[in-house]
Model the fold of this input.
Amino acid sequence: MDNGFFKNVEKKTGVNMKDIFDLANSLQNANFKDEKTVRNVIKRVSEIANKPVNQETEDKIVQSIIADGKQLDINTISKMINKK
Done:
């Protein structure tokens, strides 16, 4: 994709594409059975999306992810945060 596409996404969403790519790279080998790792990912997505997550919602997301244990992507976590 060309640079213009990413600039348009940044402009419309207010989300820095470098942050998204950095997060995506960090998710590739993340252990989603590890609670600390999962909480760090949730916090990072929350920061990038500028959507605060309260403790109750974070706990529910963590339990859901750990119970499932599958590899996750940014869209899945973002959808969970936006359901709060």
User: Anything to note?
Assistant: The mean pLDDT is 80. The chain is about 70% helix and 0% strand.
